[in-house]
Amino acid sequence: MKLTDYMKDRLAVYLIAGGTWVLVLIFLAAFRVTVQAAVIVSVILWLGMFAAEAWGFTRKKSWYDKLENCLGELDKKYLLSEMVSDPDFLEGHILYEALQESNKSMCEHIAEYRRENKEFREYLELWVHEIKLPVASLQLMCHNDDGNSSNHTKYAEQIRRIDDYIENVLYYARSGNAERDYIIKPVSLKRTFADIAIRNREELLERGISLHTEGLDVNVMTDGKWLGFILGQLMGNSMKYDATEITVTAEDSPEKTVLHFRDNGCGIPAADLPNIFSKSFTGENGRTHRRSTGMGLYIVKKLCGKLGHSVSAGSVQGEFTEISITFGKNDLHDVV
User: Fold this and answer.
1) What does the domain layout of the chain look like in residue ranges?
2) CATH 3.30.565.10, applies to 181-334
3) Cα–Cα distance between 260 and 275 in angstroms, integer?
4) N or C: which end of the chain has fewer CB within 10 A?
5) What's the pLDDT tens digit per position in 177-206?
6) In contact, 222 and 307? CB cutoff 8 Å
7) DSSP secondary structure, 160-202, as one string
8) Is the pLDDT of residue 262 over 90?
9) What DSSP element (H or E) covers 117?
10) What phi and psi, each to the nearest 5 degrees, are found at residue 330?
């Protein structure tokens, strides 16, 4: 708080004090009080006024300066009321009480929102688990079906797509609280990728997609289930966007392990590349491939962030797309 601002705010008080002083002088002159006495009375009045203003400015400046500093330094502004103390002047006390009440109301609102969000997420997870049962039954029926192979293939593909979309819903619902649903431990990249390849082998064979791996005989600190979902999303994108070859390699060093997932599909336009991890972004390829929802890579990015990994993408349209995931050796301590 600046002294000039304080004085401007108190200008009316000073004008009233000045008018009062003039009336006092007129009153003293009417009673023929000596000039020396009038001067002494004036000095006493103005010294008292100065002392009162100096004391008021000093105690208010200390509290308001702390308020402004806290507001400027805090990332979460709503914690302001927790950082300041109750001042010893009335208007500051009123402001402090207002901040406390506002913060209390906000906390109650957030608590209510969290309860509703938790209930919805729990219901969604329950629904996903329930719906997976008939989907799994349909998959088994298609697998055992000896009928027309063309229809069998079409039905199996549609059921697999339904299962993939259900899986996306489940992982998206859990990604907001992923830290409660994972276990960080050494996970084999080779085994995890092999499981995903086996799960998708029918479509890989149908589309004639070849797989090449190199350097996957390493362990990384992550959650195997979440990593499996991430690799599944990347493989699904490769199949969706007309790849005929998928190459997965790992570079291991004392500081980090970098997994490169590369395909020779249609590639990503340069204009779209910076936005591919954005929520619901489909871009040019998404408009030509109706199966795109724009959520897969967004969930991948979000889960990698929760697990403490970094993810990046590189692509040349018409040539290749490469997604790189970096696993730090100390990811266990870096998890958000």
Assistant:
1) 3-85, 181-334
2) yes
3) 19
4) C
5) 655 567 888 999 999 999 999 988 888 888
6) yes
7) HHHHHHHHHHHHHHHHTTGGGS---EEEEHHHHHHHHHHHTHH
8) yes
9) helix 90-144
10) -110, 30
